[in-house]
Design goal:
single chain, mainly alpha, 2 domains, 7 helices, rod-shaped, disordered C terminus
Length: about 260
């Protein structure tokens, strides 16, 4: 029963679709590690069972060979006894001839017995040989699967490391992407642009305020001249005096002055 169980386990493991198992696993690496352990343990069990089966087969083969050899030896003894009986009978010694004929019969009986044992062992030997051959094939298949598992595990681990490295590179590139407006550099550049715009606005505002101040100075000068002329008139001064307090007066025709007094 144990041998049949080992043989069933070997058949199941050899027929296993490793790729399908990897695809359906939640964690392929853990699954592969477990499969490697299972295959290694089952290979050890299979080797022990196969060694025992081969040992039993060799015992059967040895016993069978001994039976065949014994049958041949008893056949030779029967032939020798029969010939000796014939010689005794030819010599007129019937009693000794019968004695050797009886020995020949006994030898033939032993020969038949040995041949029967050898014949009975032949099917067992054939069956055991078939089992051993299948177990050997299954064991070789399991060893091939184990190598496939190890290769697949190494491949997946290498691919996982490469993928991890690529992801780190992509994340690093993304974090310093100057074209990304959400990045730190993009936000800092936006802040600088706003500060530059604010400074430009303040400069324009300051320029317009300065112009307004110069315009107000002109207005003040004009009002000051008006006040000076008004003060001169109130003091009883003439228009000429009022003009003298301000800007340079224009020449007034003399002939017009009497007309103004008459009015």
């Amino acid at each position: 029963m144990a041998k049949q169980s080992i043989f069933g386990r070997i058949s199941t493991l050899v027929r296993a679709n490793i790729n399908a198992m990897i695809d359906s696993a939640e964690d392929p690496q853990k699954m592969l590690d477990q499969l490697v352990r299972d295959y290694t343990n089952n290979i050890a069990d299979a080797e022990a069972a196969i060694a025992e089966t081969i040992g039993n087969l060799r015992l059967l083969e040895r016993d069978h060979q001994e039976d065949v050899q014994a049958a041949a030896e008893w056949g030779s003894k029967a032939l020798a006894a029969s010939r000796r009986a014939d010689e005794m009978r030819s010599a007129g010694n019937a009693a000794d001839a019968d004695k050797f004929d009886n020995l020949a019969k006994i030898a033939l009986q032993r020969q038949i017995s040995e041949e029967g044992q050898a014949k009975a062992a032949a099917p067992q030997i054939a069956a055991q040989t078939e089992v051993v051959d299948k177990l050997k094939d299954g064991l070789n298949g399991m060893k091939g699967k184990l190598e496939q598992l190890r290769t697949k595990r190494s491949e997946l681990l290498a691919r996982a490391k490469v993928a991890e490295a690529q992801n780190k590179v992509h994340d690093a590139i993304k974090s310093v992407n100057v074209l990304d407006p959400t990045s730190d550099i993009g936000r800092f550049e936006d802040k600088i642009r706003r500060q530059e715009a604010l400074a430009q606005g303040k400069a324009e505002l300051a320029a317009s305020s300065l112009d307004a101040q110069f315009e107000s100075l002109d207005d003040i000068g004009e009002l000051t001249e008006v006040e000076a002329r008004l003060a001169a008139l109130k003091a009883g001064g003439s228009a000429q005096g009022a003009l003298g307090a301000g800007a340079e007066p224009q020449a007034v025709p003399q002939q017009q002055l009497p007309q103004q007094n008459q009015q």
